Fold this protein.
Amino acid sequence: SSGINAEYGGSQMYEVTNMQPKCMLPVANTPLIWYPIQFLIRHNFKETYVVVRRSAREVVEKYLTVQLEREAVRMSVEYVVVEDDSEMGTADSLRLIAPKTKSNLLVISGDLITRVSLSELANVHRANDAALTALVAPWYTPPSPDGRKKRNKKDDRDFMGLDPSDNRILFLSNEKDLEDEITFRKGQLSVFPHMRVYTTLRDCHLYIVSRTAVQTLLNKTDIAMLRCEFLPLLVRKQIKQIANSEQFTDLYSILPNDEESSGEQFAALCRPEEVGCYVHITDEFTVRVNQLHNYIKYNRAVAELMPDMMPAYTPPKTVTSFEDGVFGVHQQTQICKQSRVSEEVVIDAKCSIKRSYIGDGVKIGPHTKIADCVIMAGVTIESNVTLANCVICLGAVIRSKSSLKDCRVCDGFEVRGGSEYTDETLIGDEDNMMSFNIDNSHNSSSGDENVMR
């Protein structure tokens, strides 16, 4: 059985998820939810469960129904609905799916895009009789213009300790959850004397969870998060004899306080073959679209490296003039091959579009230059506008002669004519956002738009 967790709105991407579910964000002009669905189709799954918020249920179901029919794929999708005001975590979501399954459960994050073969992960899981097997991958970093790759300092690193002999997980924590030092118990080190700690690998939130581990989760109702609470719990404490019992005993609570004898008893109780959490390290293209600073580059990477994983692309038709209700691109406009532009657009004459992704219902006036941008559905861009490395969200309006670089324009926001912005987040209604400080002093135009820093 498989489950896709698509319920979360994207707390690290609030600028672009204010009016649409995160799972419907376009990546290379394809809603994000399609990529985990396509992953399951590729591995011959015939049914899956999708966990969604109630407000997102209709739009997600409508899209998947149409797209599966268009692709002539027979897959049963059952939607598990979570209330919008619920504070359920990922482990809570898994509990909603668990009673519906009777075998191992494949859990996929709704923001995962990967080329990995599931058979590789399954082989690791079976070979080790694992309680949980996780997919991990190096951070994807596209080469800079000088050809070198450099990690973005905004990325939160995972600290992952693995047994070098079999990639058993011995330690796992996120950088922001750690203090200045990492400590390990002497007893644990007596059992696993060799550990290799990685900071270059990322937990991809793709797991195979055994039925035994699922039952443990059902018993531990105080655990809310799969990645932050349940997985570390298994890494630290899960022993088959205890996991199979009705109560999950804290291993350290049954050991004496004496350090030496504690280490000996830990070694006796926690034999290496009883520890059931492993990883499969893949070098296949794998990203999670969960941080805004990576959003544009992931659009470009997916378009370049995974064209066969996306729905068939039909470019817009070329026209010589526009009439009411006619979609197309003027013959005097240039669109590079690396761009993906919806069929239902109106793009006037003498525009230049490079490495950009433009959604349905977008209207672009003449003499406009767009490079390395994501333009979502319903956006209006007037004449003589310059956009570089920007995300323009649903229904936004960019008036004539505006120039934006490295900006995020939120849903429905109107940029006044002649404005110039660099590295700004422009919001239309601050009451609909989380609590931010609004600073108008940095607005270079004469208008009074809200600028979020």
In short: The mean pLDDT is 82. Residues 191 and 271 are 7 Å apart (CA to CA). The longest strand covers residues 201-209.
